[in-house]
Amino acid sequence: MARKLSPAQVEAHRQQNRECMRQARQSQRQRLQEMKTTVQNLEKQYNDLTNRSHTATSTKRLGAEKLLLQSMLKQKAAWRLQLQRIIDFEASSVHHEPQLQGVPEVVIEVMDELQAAREFGFQPLTEQDLTQIIMDNERYVSHVKNRLLSVGAQRELRTRCMQAFGWDIVQRVEDSVLEFVYTKRFHGLNVLDVMKKSWTNGLILEEFKKVKTETRHLQALQRVNSNAFVLARDVFSPSDISTFRSVFVRFLVEAAKDIAVESGPASSGEVVVGTGYILGTQSVDPGCPRPPSMEELSGKLAWADLSLSIEAFDVVNSVTGESYQQISWVGRTDYCSEEHARRNASDTLQGMLHWEVLVIAPALKLVSIPN
């Protein structure tokens, strides 16, 4: 028989039950609160992930729109540049004609088109291509002039300035690139005769070698018109690279340019207009892929990039009344390494002096003195 509890024991038992119930309810409330907190955290994480997904989608969309906008802006810039080139060319005083007056037609053998494509990867140029090449040459040559003839540039260690045989000579070699400006004034010179002879000699190998003696091959690839030919040239080099090859346009155009006055009352930045001719040489991309030759694979042959100009202008200084002829050789060449660029600097300077002896007159006349 169960023992009967006293009233005090019953009350104590009830109190214990109430405390256990209270603790159980408190524990349930804590677990419920923890579950609510967990749910809230999960909802927050879900919202964060959703926002990230939306952000990623928006970022991808904005990135695609940005790329499209950049492409459109580049296309617009290209159109604007092309339009500006057309406008500049129309406004330019440099122009080429079907036949320059007084310049004889030069008849030379032109390589077959298929052979030119096979050997040099060359595709024929159009008149529009020629126009672009002439404008490119003008831009490159102007850049070289502005760069080398500035006061700051002539103080640089890489820039060499000197005078020889009446020529003002500025040269700069940096890495594989040679830039140069040679200028000389003459009196009583017929600039048309000078350029006619230079034009003809530049298309015939035996005559061309008298100026650039290391030339061993010169071949016409295309006659664009009577004043422009595409030529391929191989130049010998006494080095690991034994041959430098170039494919370039040789063109003759009439021109009018501002000539800086260096002396007299008009020396403070004043310019006068010179009229005459420009004989340009501008490398072109052959345009047709071809397998490299054995010489190229062996490293014996490399391609040289040329942007050259011989300028001959009649100049009249309206302030002093002086009239003279100004001849300039200006250009930029890339011959693969600094060693070859320095050798080319020497060869180019010698070539200019050979040209003067051949086309104009001896650079230096030796006079015998009687005993």
TrEMBL record:
Residues 1-30 are annotated as: Disordered. Residues 11-22 have a biased composition (Basic and acidic residues). This is BZIP domain-containing protein. It comes from Phytophthora sojae (strain P6497).
